[in-house]
Specification:
With 339 residues, the protein is an alpha+beta fold. The model has no long low-confidence stretch (mean pLDDT 95). Helix 2 packs antiparallel against helix 3. It is globular. The termini are far apart. Strands 4-3-5-6-7-8-9-10 form an eight-stranded mixed sheet, sandwiched between helices. Strands 12-11-13-17-15 form a five-stranded mixed sheet, with helices on both faces. It has two domains: 182 residues, 2-Layer Sandwich (Fructose-1,6-Bisphosphatase, Chain A, domain 1), CATH 3.30.540.10; 138 residues, D-Maltodextrin-Binding Protein, domain 2. Helix content is 28%, strand content 24%. It binds 2,5-anhydro-1,6-di-O-phosphono-D-mannitol and magnesium ion. The site of magnesium ion has 4 residues, from strand 5.
């Protein structure tokens, strides 16, 4: 008996039809899928074609650029431009906002084409993360950088494992797997489990002595209750949390003995890393806050490459952490940190 899984595109067509939406978002998503499949191909064959090394340049973040960073960025830009639907894009790999179809476009696109680059030389999992905002159709558009709570959708591909997770505003968070025809298929709704049995903790333990005192204390008091997992690629680490529940964190570094190694603003980038996973996490029933205990989704970006600390995952844990970070003060945003 032949068995056919529903494809991502069929899933999305049905969703758009049910909600009386236009085809523009479908065209954009088709371009994103094309980009992801091409990145997947370059990454799978990267070791054979010598693409897993350094590019020899430094990016806007002051980090050494890898060949795969450049390849993935070019691929995404190509497909976004071709879609004709993007007003402007923000890429981790480019200092300036990238103008696209400024007059006729409909969406704003924020992306990290190759997240978790320390895994690249090993050909281990990396991510392609993106958030999508939309033009104001009810009045004049000021082209401001969208906060997470203005996103219409956000998603991540874990490459090369062939998984794709997409959250649609007020319509849940869905996971797909790539099949032998390179189609993403078999939608499964992701909801963070309430049962603590599977909950995990995920953070770079090498930094723990440099976190704020309250966070260090929380770790000491709680770590024995959880298993510990850390891949070093946000997409992969969050992928696990979405299924198993728990807490991913990349706290601010505030107690490093070498002052210049402190990162009071955190490490991860707001627009195309933290806000993307926060939006997905909220659609899956979780939440996310920054170092002041404020919802990540409420942070209005002032700069495209702004950084933030990130605490992300199961609501009870994020709430507990947020309470510590707020120093006993009331919630800085909606309970749970979601819309
Ligand atoms: P990148 O975009 O330069 O790869 O950095 C972002 C990554 C995240 O994917 C990951 O969660 C974190 O940085 C890992 O940092 P560290 O190596 O300090 O643990
Ligand atoms: Mg990144």
């Amino acid at each position: 008996m032949l068995h056919f899984e529903q494809t991502f595109m069929d899933f999305l067509l049905e969703h758009q039809e049910r909600h009386h939406r236009t085809y523009h978002f479908l065209i954009l998503m088709n371009s994103i899928l094309n980009a992801a499949k091409r990145i997947q191909y370059y990454y799978l064959t990267g070791a054979l074609h010598g693409n897993l090394g350094m590019a020899g340049s430094v990016n806007v973040q002051g980090e050494d650029v890898m060949k795969m960073d450049d390849i993935a960025n070019e691929v995404v830009k190509h497909y976004l431009e071709r879609s004709g639907r993007v007003i402007h894009a923000v890429s981790e790999e480019e200092e300036n906002i990238i103008p696209m179809n400024v007059e006729g476009g409909r969406y704003f696109f924020y992306y990290d084409p190759m997240d978790g680059t320390s895994n690249v030389p090993h050909n281990l999992p990396v991510g392609f993360l993106f958030g999508i905002g939309k033009r104001n159709l009810d009045g004049p558009e000021d082209n401001h950088l969208r906060a997470g709570n203005e996103f219409r959708a956000a998603g991540m591909f874990v490459i090369p494992t062939g998984t794709f997770t997409l959250a649609l505003r007020d319509a849940g968070c869905w996971r797909f797997h790539i099949d032998e025809m390179m189609n993403y298929v078999k939608p499964v709704r992701m909801v963070l489990p309430e049962d603590r049995k599977t909950w995990e903790l995920s953070f770079n333990t090498a930094n723990r002595e440099y976190y704020a005192a309250g966070i260090q204390e929380w770790i000491r008091n709680n770590e024995k209750s959880f298993v510990f997992r850390y891949l070093g690629a946000l997409a992969g680490d969050f992928h696990r949390i979405l299924r198993n529940g728990g807490l991913f964190m990349y706290p601010a570094i505030v107690n490093h003995p070498v002052a210049k190694k402190n990162r009071p603003q955190g490490k991860l980038r707001l627009m195309y890393e933290a806000a993307v996973v926060a939006f997905m996490c909220c659609e899956a029933g979780g939440s996310a806050v920054d170092e002041s205990g404020k919802s990540i989704l409420d942070i209005v970006p002032e700069m495209p490459h702004q950084r933030t600390a990130l605490y992300l995952g199961s609501k009870p844990l994020v709430e507990e952490i947020a309470g510590i970070l707020r120093g006993g003060k009331g919630p800085a945003s909606a309970p749970g940190g979601c819309r």
